[in-house]
Write a structure and sequence with these properties.
Blueprint (H helix, E strand, L loop, with lengths): L3 E4 L5 H12 L3 E6 L3 H13 L4 E5 L5 H12 L4 E6 L15 H26 L8 E6 L3 H4 L6 H21 L4 E8 L6 H4 L5 H5 L11 H12 L10 E4 L4
Parallel strand pairs: 1-2, 1-4, 2-3, 4-5, 5-6, 6-7
The structure holds NADP nicotinamide-adenine-dinucleotide phosphate.
């Protein structure tokens, strides 16, 4: 395959696992990362070590300039075939009445506006309306979009609710132009995102309430994402897959 998959936030966690799984399926992988250059380069080295093709570009999805640079770099790597809108953040546990405007704006800028802008760049390249060959977009939502995350981070949950609505709407908008738009709603997954919100043990602590009684792994989410990216999912669009152990 000569086609490129852009994966935002591909240096760690679910994005890293997706980059490795996509490369194993033959995608040329272009990962974005926010600041952890060493982790990003380690992913590229691991893929290249397995005879895959990968590159890394620093791209804070809060910056439109960075996003434009990410896609310009990917253009030099091959024709775009997939975007995985994976970059996302949580924040400290709080009730809404204690959240600042700056926190809310950061949450929406990274999780929602960043994903919309990346999808815009992908559609400009992949849509048959623009001379492209079609492709697929996979958006990372969260079980939080269904559950609401009361007393933890309703701002994060709301940002993922926006991702679900955007997935449905964009899927309809570009379905006849060769682009499938899908989503994945992970449950409690064992990554460093929980520590970044100040509660590293969160996923394991809450896993007693998961019907399967355990956290999920980044690989289990990556497997769902690369299936949605593949021709095996050729009739799937507008769908959002819960990968949450039943949560
Ligand atoms: P993670 O382990 O914290 O990794 C985050 C990744 O995103 C890193 O590669 C990081 O880059 C990058 N990143 C962070 N802020 C960014 C920004 N502003 N611009 C670009 N990249 C940025 O996160 P994760 O758990 O893998 O989560 C990935 C996605 O899955 C997120 O959208 C998250 O909301 C969603 N999700 C996760 C869970 C879970 O339980 N883990 C559950 C539901 C949904 P650096 O390495 O450079 O910092």
């Amino acid at each position: 395959m000569d086609r490129v998959a852009v994966i935002t936030g591909g240096s760690r966690g679910i994005g890293r696992a997706t980059a490795l799984a996509a490369a194993a399926r033959g995608w040329r992988v272009c990962i974005g990362y926010a600041g952890n250059e060493a982790a990003a380069h380690a992913v590229v080295a691991e893929i290249e070590g397995g005879n895959g093709a990968a590159m890394a570009v620093r791209c804070d999805v809060a910056s439109e300039t960075d996003i434009l640079a990410l896609f310009a770099a990917a253009d030099g790597f091959g024709p775009l075939g997939a975007l995985v809108n994976n970059a996302g953040v949580v924040d400290a546990t709080a009730r809404l009445e204690d959240m600042s405007a700056a926190r809310l704006q950061r949450m929406m800028t990274i999780n929602v506006v960043g994903s919309l802008l990346c999808a815009r760049e992908a559609v400009r390249r992949m849509s048959t309306r623009h001379g492209g060959q079609g492709g697929v977009i996979v958006n990372l939502s969260s079980a939080a979009a269904r559950l609401g995350s009361a007393n933890t981070y309703v701002d994060y949950a709301a940002s993922k609710g926006a991702i679900d609505t955007f997935t449905r709407g964009l899927a309809d908008e570009v379905a006849a132009e060769g682009i499938r738009v899908t989503g994945v709603r992970p449950g409690l997954i064992d990554t460093e995102i929980h520590g970044s919100g100040g509660d590293p043990d969160r996923a394991h602590r809450l896993s007693v309430n998961v019907p399967m009684r355990r956290v999920g792994t980044a690989d289990e989410i990556a497997n769902a994402i690369v299936w949605l990216m593949s021709d095996e999912a050729s009739y799937v669009t507008g769908s959002i897959l819960d990968v949450s152990g039943g949560r």
